[in-house]
Design a protein that fits this description.
GO terms for molecular function: ATP binding; ATP hydrolysis activity; ATP-dependent DNA damage sensor activity; endonuclease activity; mismatched DNA binding; ribosomal large subunit binding; rRNA binding. It is an enzyme of class 3 (hydrolase). Its EC number is 3.1.-.-, 3.6.4.-. By secondary structure, the chain is an alpha/beta fold. It folds into five domains: 161 residues, MutS, DNA mismatch repair protein, Chain A, domain 3 (Orthogonal Bundle); 103 residues, Orthogonal Bundle (MutS, DNA mismatch repair protein, Chain A, domain 3); 224 residues, Rossmann fold (3-Layer(aba) Sandwich), CATH 3.40.50.300; 65 residues, SH3 type barrels (Roll); 79 residues, Ribosomal Protein S8, Chain: A, domain 1. Helix content is 51%, strand content 16%. It has a seven-stranded mixed beta sheet, sandwiched between helices. A five-stranded antiparallel beta sheet has the order 19-18-17-16-20. The protein has a four-stranded antiparallel beta sheet with strand order 2-3-5-4. Strand 14 and strand 15 form a beta hairpin.
């Protein structure tokens, strides 16, 4: 049950219906939009919502679903159902093309993948049948442009050929006669043959009409020109007329046969066009849902509302067109909290909140998706009662308040535990004390009947009653009491203040009037409003503090994450360094043993010859000096200098004996001159060199002196930050990218680029999947469009 009769106009649904009509492709869809109404069957509402939700997903997927030729041919079918009638070619064209759309739609949902994705939409066409033979029969006669095919029958083809031949003969004769008439000055120089009375004629100047033998068919409005059919073409024109009549007779015969063939299929065709109309209707609902960012909430059988981030659809569309946003609201109605009593200042959004709740619930039970956030829930109501606006009636001698009381009567008599009641400005329209008392009594009765509802009011006694009555909860539209501006935010659990005195003071009402009003209203009321104001202020402060705490917590979480990552990196690096050092030590020990054994062997072979022994010992000493750096030549590091690095400082890579000069710092990266080669490294990988480090041997000499040290400077100098793997097999390319990325990470390179080309996209996907799996990779993105776009991947390293 809906109350009152003009419920849709009052709640704003009529405008939603008009928007839906504008989205329909044909009158087939319009028919269902006009019939759309409030439903209270859970299974039916659920099916309609699922259909719309599936079509939204179909639109979002960008699939090639047919949206052309949604013709309404019901008039043609009605005509064809009458015996001894035939349909015109245009009618058959519309039937043919629309049936192709029906078959294409059925074929789309017959695909196993589509059947799994869109089960509710597939079920729509379960009983729809379009005979292929019927389409073939129509296609034999009518082409895709709505014209009758010349080869629709042998006789029609013969007549068409004869007709073309005769028309060609006629044009040649008429052109010859016209040229002669122009040469004699009987016809204007720019004259051309034309049609009059279905016959080809030539224009002749009136004063020369006796010079040309023939039949006058017409004359111009001025009388200066007459249109004559020359005598020599009488027979040809007659032949053409006979052929045209024969063509028409054959055409009618074919169309009659085709109509007779179609007639038995009319019952199946009506089902097919109902299916096409439903698709059009559901599509319009899906388009509206996308415009509103609407979703399918979790549905329950019993009355229930749990809107999260809900917006008023019409307000959303209006603000969207203006480039503005809408403040969403969240509200809940359940068995323990059935009635929400909203209070707050005028123009603060109370009525919008009430209409949002009512309109969304009505839309939902009409099968429309609603603009609510993820996690929203909704139930099914059997009735919705609405009291909003001024309903005074001169004819029925009803005042505004009397009309409100009539509505209250209907609510009390017919509303039950499965009803929703929506009342705006409850109790107004009469003397405040009496109006408030009656409103409280009605509210008590409605609460006793366990109805659900949203009610707006300014009355304090109703706020107090809600505070102490189970089943009713206060709500407030939040207000900035300092700026005296509404925030349009609904807060559940506390009443709101009207801020009447404050607003009067803000708009400049004389001070003495404001003060007098404050005295008249009484200290208790002022104290009550100030308490609400204080609560609002404290809430705003608490929200600001919570926001600051959340911001600090996010920073802390980020720092902890970075610390954990750094610690893990250090542990991994330590393990790698120890493994490498052990390997180098093992190799050095092996070489040393070989050298010692060689020395002993030389001494034995020379039988301890003094010169030979001395020479062997000298070779062993040279080997020792070459392989082991003397303590006097080792870098002696002092206590770290904590001053920030500056251009010109002598720096070294942490853990390495390579030294260079710092050229510049940009963000987290630095440019360093190593042995005459400029290299980009991370600042975190550098440390200031100790005094005298500049006098050390160049990195190149040090590396040559010790094969056990890795020449980091040369590797960094030779490293290029771009790799090209186009044309390579996926496995080979991925192997190169892995090695390339590992080198970049080890050398501290901040950014690299991988050129893989577009192709089928498989190579790009494999490379990016690998990069995203590496914790040292900060981001993966397309190159700039001017430098390759998605044919190259830019990788930022941590």
């Amino acid at each position: 049950m809906l109350y009152p009769q003009n419920f849709e106009q009052k709640i704003g649904f009529q405008q939603i219906r008009e928007i839906l009509e504008s989205y329909c492709l044909s009158p087939l869809g319009l028919y269902f939009v006009k019939r759309m109404g409030f439903l209270d069957r859970f299974d039916l509402v659920q099916k309609l919502l699922q259909q719309t939700d599936e079509y939204v997903r179909l639109l979002n997927a960008g699939t090639d679903f047919p949206t052309q030729y949604y013709f309404d041919v019901n008039t043609h079918l009605h005509r064809a159902s009458v015996q001894n009638t035939f349909l015109e070619p245009q009618a058959f064209f519309e039937i043919k093309m629309s049936l192709k759309t029906v078959r294409a739609s059925l074929s789309f949902f017959a695909n196993p993948e589509a059947e799994e994705l869109y089960p509710a939409l597939k079920a729509l066409g379960a009983n729809v049948l379009v005979e292929r033979a019927l389409l073939a029969a129509i296609d034999k006669v009518i082409d895709d442009n709505g014209q009758v095919k010349d080869d629709a029958s042998p006789e029609l083809g013969r007549i068409k050929r004869d007709l073309i031949a005769q028309q060609s003969t006629l044009r040649k004769q008429i052109q010859s006669i016209l040229r002669h008439a122009k040469s004699q000055g009987w016809s204007p120089d720019d004259a051309e043959p034309t049609i009059r009375g279905g016959r080809l004629v030539i224009p002749v100047i009136a004063e020369f009409k006796r010079r040309l033998k023939g039949l006058i068919h017409d004359e111009s409005t001025t009388g200066h020109t007459v249109y004559i059919e020359p005598e020599p073409v009488f027979e040809v024109n007659n032949d053409i007329k006979d052929l045209e009549n024969a063509y028409q007779r054959e055409l009618i015969r074919l169309l009659t046969l085709l109509t007779d063939y179609l007639r038995p299929h009319i019952p199946d065709l009506r089902k097919a066009y109902q299916y096409l109309g439903l698709l059009d209707f559901i599509r319009a609902k899906a388009v509206l849902a996308r415009e509103l960012n609407a979703t399918l909430p979790k549905l329950q059988k019993q009355p229930h509302i749990r809107w999260k981030q809900a917006t008023h659809p019409l307000l959303f569309l209006s603000h969207k067109a203006q480039g503005r946003g809408v403040v969403p609201l969240s509200l809940s109605l359940d068995q323990n909290q059935r009635i929400l009593l909203i209070s707050g200042p005028n123009a603060g959004g109370k009525s919008v909140a009430l209409k949002t709740a009512g309109l969304l619930q009505y839309m939902l039970q009409c099968g429309l998706l609603v603009p609510v956030g993820e996690g929203s829930e909704a139930g099914i109501f059997e009735d919705i009662f609405l009291d909003i606006g001024d309903e005074q009636s001169i004819e029925n001698d009803l005042s505004t308040y009397s009309s409100h009381l009539q509505n209250m009567k209907q609510f009390v008599l017919f509303a039950g535990k499965k009803s929703m009641v929506l009342i705006d400005e409850f109790g107004t329209g009469t003397e405040p004390i009496l109006g408030g008392a009656i409103a409280e009594a009605v509210l008590e009765k409605l609460n006793h009947q366990k109805v659900y509802g949203v009610i707006t009011t300014h009355y304090t006694n109703l706020k107090d009653y809600a505070e102490k009555s189970p089943g009713i909860v206060n709500g407030a539209m939040r207000y900035d009491h300092k700026q005296l501006q509404p925030l349009y935010q609904l807060e559940i659990g506390k009443p709101g203040s009207s801020f009447a005195i404050e607003i009067a003071r803000k708009i400049g009402l004389p001070k003495e009037i404001v003060e007098k009003a404050s005295k008249l209203v009484g200290k208790d009321k002022i104290r009550y409003d100030r308490l609400l104001e204080q609560l609002e202020s404290e809430k705003n402060l608490l929200e600001k503090q919570n926001a600051d705490l959340e911001k600090q917590q996010r920073k802390l979480d980020k720092a902890v994450k970075e610390y954990s990552a750094l610690k893990e990196h250090i542990e991994e690096s330590r393990t790698d360094i120890i493994r490498e050092a052990k390997g180098k030590a093992k190799l050095l020990l092996k070489e040393a043993n070989q050298q010692i054994e060689s020395t002993i062997s030389q001494i034995r072979e020379s039988q301890a010859d003094k010169e030979k022994t001395k020479e062997a010992r000298q070779q062993l000493q040279e080997f020792t000096e070459k392989k082991v750096t003397p303590e006097s030549k080792k870098v002696k590091r002092t206590t770290p200098d904590n001053r920030p690095l500056q251009p010109g400082d002598k720096v070294s890579l942490i853990g390495q004996d390579s030294y260079g000069e710092l050229v510049g710092i940009k963000g987290k990266t630095a440019e360093v001159l190593f042995g005459g080669l400029k290299t980009i490294v991370k600042v975190d990988n550098l440390e200031r060199a100790v005094a005298g480090a500049a006098k050390m041997k160049p990195e190149k000499e040090t590396a040559e002196a010790s094969r056990s040290n890795v020449n980091m400077t040369r590797r960094m100098a030779d490293f290029t930050s771009t790799i090209d793997v186009r044309g390579e097999r996926a496995e080979e390319a991925l192997t190169k990218v892995m090695a390339f990325t590992d080198d970049a990470i080890m050398l501290g390179i901040p950014e690299i680029k991988i050129i893989h080309g577009r192709g089928t996209g498989i190579l790009k996907q494999m490379i990016r999947d690998y990069l995203r799996s590496q914790r040292e990779v900060a981001s993966v993105a397309d190159e700039h469009i001017e430098r390759g776009g998605d044919g190259a991947t830019v990788v930022v390293l941590k």
